[in-house]
Specification:
10 strands; alpha+beta; disordered C terminus; five-stranded antiparallel β-sheet; 370 residues; single chain
Amino acid sequence: MYQPAKARRFIGCVTIAINRDCEREEGPILNSDDLKDLAFVAYELAQPDDRRVLARPRLAERLLSLFRADFLGQTQWNEETQAFEKPLCYNRDQRMSWEFEVYYQHCDPISKHIRLRSDATSTYEVISRRRLERSEYYADFLRPHRVSHGIDQYLFEDGKIIGDFRVWRKSASKEFANRERQLLIALRPMLKNAYRSMLSGDGLEGAVHANGILAVAISADHRRYICSPALIDWISRQNGISENGFKNTVMAAVRNRQTFVSFPRFDLKIGWRNVASHSQCAIICTVVPKCERNFERHTDLTPREREVSRLIAQGMTDREISESLGIAFWTVRTHVGNVLRKLDARNRVELINRAGIVGLRADSDTTGSA
């Protein structure tokens, strides 16, 4: 493949810089395959293309190979809302992107520290592994998607964040080294120029009808409402309901302390989290497919497991469930693990959608409909 002289000079400079900065590491820093990947990536990032970086399969695959990674992610930063939006991932279920946008970015203990740095930074530079693994972000988000080791490069323009590019490996994989850090730093200007297109909602239909999807986060004081733009677009197409119409229906249900709202093509489950009133994550709403089995009783769950499950459906953490039921925290974790195993659920969202917990509709007097 023809490479312009400027691209060849870039590759040569990157190779020299990485070899110099990583000279203490054992083994070759950039082998012949790495150089081919780097050449391809540099050339493709320089091409005019309206698609986002990870929406270009050939480019994404070569980036995955270059970084010897298992998963890639990118987001754009909205300065007005102070939140990430338009997330996109490669080599993982797109559900991960939507749930990060709506909820998990607000309990992410990593990004708030990395945002202060201009150079690529690995996860364990800003948080210990033990602390990360004890967080909700890891237990309910990273671990179910089988990722742990990460390195993140924030992209700035005129001193302001415009987005970031994330590289992840599986929990059992080797952590990222200086090689990957220097590669990410070298590619930073080219990645920044490539951040230009919009996220598509394609695939949301399948995501909702597979197991449901975490859709809306609301603060306890009802002043902050967060919903994925892609999901809003999908809802509008499904039901002929406007963004404001959907938001008003959801907010009315929340104010009335309802736990369930029915729409023509899907249901919305509402759960409360016992957190500070200013929290952005006090109320979470999950869109789930209409399905009769949602409210079936699962006879293989013990009474205590069913009780714990119902509290999970209400948005309680394990610590809050422990205090509510007067049982030990680790006993709660054991019950949660048993329920996940019995219902073959990967995380709490799937558990809520599959269990007889979702017998919330049958058990609650606060049930309402739109």
